[in-house]
Amino acid sequence: MKYKYKILIVDKEEEELSTLKKRLEQEGYKVETTKSAIDAFKKIKGDKYHIVLIDIEMPEMDGLGLLREIKKYDSMTQIIMMTQHSTMDKILGSLEYGANDYIYKPFESEEYVMNIIDHSVQKLERWREAIIQIVK
């Protein structure tokens, strides 16, 4: 069912964007990327993304700011924060503003990232099933 999930990756590093995009597309996801948090929010307002991976350290608007804006706009979006340099404030801020997970870069492995994304997909599937049961 991965083909029906759309993922947006927001990262200032071109290599991270292309590597993740390629792997996720191989797994059957529809993937878009951007190097700008402001552009990411415009994309989110114009389309539905089920999962968004956000680098915390972004120019213009940091990842926590983008996280807050996305959750105000669509609270069901699964947000996975990414960072090379973390602080307790960033971790707690991510939790407070509704991030679903937190990944350190460089990634442990591609499989590690895929497991985290699969976990988000499973959560979305459980919500979808709950809604279907109510509608029946």
What is the distance, rounded to the nearest whole angstrom, between the alpha carbons of the first and last residues?
A: 21 Å
Helix-strand pattern, N to C?
A: EHEHEHEHEH
Within the largest sheet, what's the order of strands? 2-1-3-4-5
Number of domains: 1
Helix content: 40-55%
Helix vs. strand class: alpha/beta
CATH architecture: 3-Layer(aba) Sandwich
Cα-atom radius of gyration: 14 Å
By CATH reckoning, the class would read Alpha Beta
Q: Tell the overall outline.
A: globular
How big a fraction of the residues is strand? 15-25%
What is the tally of helical segments? 5
According to CATH, what is the topology? Rossmann fold
Brief synopsis:
This protein has 136 residues and is of the alpha/beta class.
Could you characterize what this model shows?
The model has no long low-confidence stretch (mean pLDDT about 90). With about 140 residues, this protein is an alpha/beta fold. Helix 4 links the parallel strand 4 and strand 5. The chain has a single domain, classed as Response regulator (Rossmann fold, 3-Layer(aba) Sandwich). The chain has five helices and five strands; from the N terminus they run E-H-E-H-E-H-E-H-E-H. The radius of gyration is 14 Å and the shape is globular.
